[in-house]
Amino acid sequence: MKADSPKIKADSPKNVVQSVAKAFAVLRAFDNGVPELTLSEVASRATLDRGTTFRLLKTVVELGYVRPVPGSKRFRLGLKCLELGFSALAGRDLPEHAAPLLREAVPKIADAGSLGVLEQGEVIYLERVQAGLGRHGIDRRPGSRTGAYASALGHAILAYLPRQAQVEHLESIERVKVSERTVVDLEALLDRLAEVRQQGYAVSDGENAYGLRTVAAPIFDIDGQPLAGLSLTVSADRMPLKEFVEVALPEVRRMTEELTESVRLSLGSIGVAGRPR
To answer: Hey, what CATH class is 13-78 in?
Structure first.
């Protein structure tokens, strides 16, 4: 796969330094599948001419971000590249990484955004950004809990657990109808979780709270196990369910994929405070 083109979009193209964009295109030409590349291969993957690629490679080699492979005409990324990622990833846990992403979506797309984890059949909220849901009387501040069986956030996490673990969580708390739409039957819930896993996301329409619609998806750890979940919620009078899913789902997927990738790149150093990593 070729690296993205160095031409990038901006509100004001005159403010974009194309030489910087091209330098990053050179660095992004390297990946796990092809850690070592020749000059020609870098040029091809970065969609640059050989002359430009030669000068850029010479520069990043001098700076220590790329190293020549001894005894060959190939190059590979230097360890100094780790500094770029580590400074952005280290020292913060998952809620701190999720908060700015949620703020991008609320209130532009949704009325609330949440990050939560699963514990003994309940969702514990770790981060919450909210605007405009006061009239619903919903309190989802960090540290608050809700039954995983009745929430899209809970379904998004539960769906990726083994069936026995799902049953244990669902039977660990009393399942009561929060609204007339709340599903409490065990077999019906297990069927619902199978559907969620198949489609990759969960949707709730008034099942956890009257008048609220939610779309949620999981965040995975470095072993591919569900670490947490992220959701966007909107008041039912703001938009129909179908429209909300169409608008919110791409954003939920983008955020959960970014957080999953951050966990992977940090080799698990990004986690949930107070929990084993």
So the answer is: mainly alpha
Residue 209 backbone dihedrals phi, psi, to 5 degrees: -160, 140
Q: Are the CB atoms for 251 and 231 separated by under 8 Å? A: no
Q: What is the DSSP letter of 132?
A: S
Domain residue limits, the chain: 13-78, 91-265
- 119-174 pLDDT, tens digit per residue, is 999 999 999 998 866 665 666 788 889 999 999 999 999 999 999 999 999 999 99
Cα–Cα dist 106/259, whole Å: 17
The 10 Å Cβ neighbour count of residue 173 is 14
For residue range 187-227, what is the model confidence (pLDDT) as tens digits?
999 999 999 999 999 999 988 888 899 999 999 998 999 99
CA distance 130 to 85: 30
SS3 202: strand
How would you list the strands of the sheet with 74-77, edge to edge? Answer: 36-38, 74-77, 66-68
Separation between Cα atoms, residue 230 and residue 93, nearest integer Å: 15
The amino acid at residue 200 is G
- Say if residues 232 and 105 touch (Cβ distance below 8 Å): yes
Conformational region of residue 238, where left means phi above 0, alpha means psi within -120 to 50, and beta covers everything else: alpha
Rounded to an integer, what distance in angstroms lies between the CA atom of residue 201 and that of residue 195? 9
Q: Residue 235 — φ and ψ, nearest 5°?
A: -70, 140
Beta bridge partners of 124: 117, 145
Contact 231, 153 (CB under 8 A): yes
Q: How far is residue 46's CA from residue 68's CA, in Å, rounded to a whole number?
A: 18
* Top CATH class, 91-265: alpha beta
Angle separating helix axes 39-46 and 18-28, nearest 10 degrees: 120
Distance CA 179, CA 149 (A): 13
| pTM for the whole structure | 0.71
